[in-house]
Amino acid sequence: MMPTSRRVITVVGAHAEGEIGDVITGGVLPPPGTTMMEKKLAFERQFDHIRRLLIQEPRGSVARHVNLILPSTRSDCAAGAIIMEPTEYPPMSGSNTMCIATVLLETGLVPMHEPLTRFALDMPAGRVEISAKCHNGKCQSVSIQNVPAVALQLDAEIDVPGVGRIAIDIAYGGMIFAIVDAHKLGFKLEPAEARVLADLGEKVRLAAREQVPIAHPELPDISGVSIVQFAGPLRHEQGRFVARNTCIVAPGRSDRSPTGTGTCARMAVLHARGQLQVGEGLTHESLIGSRFIGTVRGETRIGGMPAILPAVEGRAWITGFHHYMVDPTDPWPDGYRLSDTWGTSDTATQF
Hints:
By secondary structure, the protein is an alpha+beta fold. It has six helices and 19 strands.
């Protein structure tokens, strides 16, 4: 017999190249709004307790992301989604979108066609097209034609407490990134550096948000640096750029995947500098050695600024099926956070 519960939320566990991106498939009603961005903002205002319930302890952790599947607000998309991370609701995420697409296909919510299934998703940042390679009922990889990516500011300088003055590139790839040259700061981007990189990344993020106010040229609801990328040097493999990186997710931990939106943001910077042309690409590696394959598939403009049309490909896997409950006697129905595991700052929201 199921215990008494205030609510039951059904979640399919998933990860994309190491980054957790679980998917809510039941127990949460759609928020109001006529666009997915409006729905995201409404959910953030009215239902943030659900995000805290699933991401904060004792049901979740700072390493978890959760995605809510919704009916699309557009006729040309199979479904929509809201992305929830430890401190924010990103308008787009590559790893989370790979998890969403894999769950939709492998649970039958979207019909699977072999060897290739194509459909589109309605995301807060805009419409993204999905091409999934499928075999024997399994989604083997997901390629995302992402929203346009743009280099917003090159070679900006900020003062970081305890470090001094450093240069950053600021770019949008679905989230706004501050990109830092890791080797100039003495990092090799090895797993043993994860903690110190996470601590420094939070310092860079907070400094960038304060010292370089910035917003998407056409979407004012997307503003401020929300994630920091420590970028390794470029090398060539079989005619492609390859580089290691890690992106620091607030409130201070390394993304386990190579970060899909971060791959797109870095390609926008490389394109803006003339290092990457249409048809060329960047293979990004994470601290754990997983890879995303990025490609510049075209050029466009955003708010009058030169931009690219990026694609990024990776893999995702389902890890389990869960029912989360809130017992009426539980004193922490929204969960809690402690600084020993949560990150470098005790916050559940961007600031």
